[in-house]
Design brief:
This protein is of the alpha+beta class. It has helices at 2-33, 46-64, 94-104, 113-120, 130-144, and strands at residues 68-70, 74-77, 82-85, 88-90, 110-112, 149-155, 159-167. A four-stranded antiparallel sheet has the order 1-2-3-4, with no helix packed on it. A three-stranded antiparallel sheet has the order 5-7-6. A hairpin with a 3-residue loop joins strand 1 and strand 2.
């Protein structure tokens, strides 16, 4: 009799565990169908939750590109339109900020003059011609390419490439 009671209790615990895992799996699947990227089961250590959150926020910042560029020497905040080089404030025109944003978001990619001109043509229809592009590139280089560092490489016959502060 005592043996049957033990078997019955074990069977109930097993059924309860299986039922919980099925319900949890159904909840997890429903969550994924609704757009969840991850599922945290309870109980969980707060450190694990914080790390998961940090990874997700980091991925979102990378996907959106963030709105900043930072390489240790050059720091640009595109949303605030502020910049500094080795701690010294830099002043850029709106066109120069747009140019820098395009280039920093496409590192190590050759951006043709035509592509840059199309991307720099602003929403108000203010046309940027080739001479204005050349002048803007020159002004930006004069402001950021100091101390033997090169940020913008001219790819002759093609366009320009952001190389991010390589030594000259």
């Amino acid at each position: 009799m005592d043996n049957n009671l033990q078997i019955n209790q074990n069977a109930e615990q097993t059924y309860h565990s299986i039922r919980q895992s099925i319900v949890s799996a159904q909840h997890m699947l429903k969550g994924y169908e609704l757009g969840a990227e991850d599922y945290v089961t309870k109980p969980f250590p707060m450190s694990v939750f914080q790390k998961k959150l940090s990874v997700v926020l980091g991925r979102l910042a990378k996907q959106s590109g963030g709105d900043c560029y930072e390489d240790g020497a050059l720091s640009i905040n595109f949303s605030e339109m502020t910049a500094s080089l080795s701690g010294k404030a830099l002043v850029f025109t709106p066109l120069e900020y747009r140019l820098l944003k395009i280039m920093t978001k496409n590192p190590q990619n050759v951006l043709t003059r035509q592509v840059l001109l199309e991307k720099l043509w602003d929403a108000d229809g203010n046309f940027v011609d080739e001479h204005a592009l050349t002048a803007a590139i020159s002004r930006v280089r004069n402001k950021i390419e100091t101390d033997g560092r090169q940020y913008i490489k001219t790819v002759y016959g093609m366009g320009y490439m952001w190389i991010g502060g390589a030594s000259k």
